[in-house]
Amino acid sequence: MPKSESDLVGKFMRLLGLVVVVFMVASLFIGGAQPGAGSLFHPPWDKLVHAGYFFVLTLLLYRFVGLPVVLVVAVSLALGMADEIHQTYLPGRTADWDDFLADSIGVALALAFAGLIFKRK
């Protein structure tokens, strides 16, 4: 593939990754504010969902959006903390340090996975 085509594919993948990240963040805050959202997953499965969500989000930020690792960690953890703070303002929801810990584990696992699988230039 000529260089210009590979550049175009790379730009498209970055844009697609960014669109998916925006959709995920919107779904986290808008979907999480819906009645009954806090009871979709029962313990201990809710922690697995938190970790899985932040695993995917972190991989997207790292691989497709192309943020530096420090920003990937900062953005991912800031979103996890913002989600917990947001829940304090929602009826029937509470902030939970265990949820933030599960988010953090998802971030760490994603970075470890990315380090093994993806090579950065």
Summed up, the helix count is: 4
Q: Identify the quaternary structure here.
A: single chain
**pLDDT under 50 segments (min length 5)?**
none
- Run of helices and strands: HHHH
**Structural class, judged by helices and strands?**
mainly alpha
The main sheet comes to: none
The best one-word shape is elongated
Mean pLDDT: 90
Q: What is the end-to-end distance?
A: 19 Å
Helix content: over 70%
**Radius of gyration of CA atoms, rounded to a whole number:** 16 Å
Number of domains: 1
**Total strand segments:** 0
Q: How large a portion of the residues is in β-strands, by DSSP E?
A: under 5%
Descriptive tags:
about 120 residues, mainly alpha, 4 helices, about 0% strand, elongated
Q: Summary?
A:
This protein is mostly helical and 121 residues long.
Textual characterization of the structure:
The protein is 75% helix and 0% strand. It has 121 residues and is mostly helical. The chain has one domain. The longest helix is centred in the N-terminal third of the chain and has 30 residues, at 3-32. The chain starts with a helix and ends with a helix.
What's the helix and strand layout?
Layout: H1 3-32, H2 45-65, H3 69-87, H4 97-117
Helix pairs in contact: 1-2, 1-3, 2-3, 2-4, 3-4
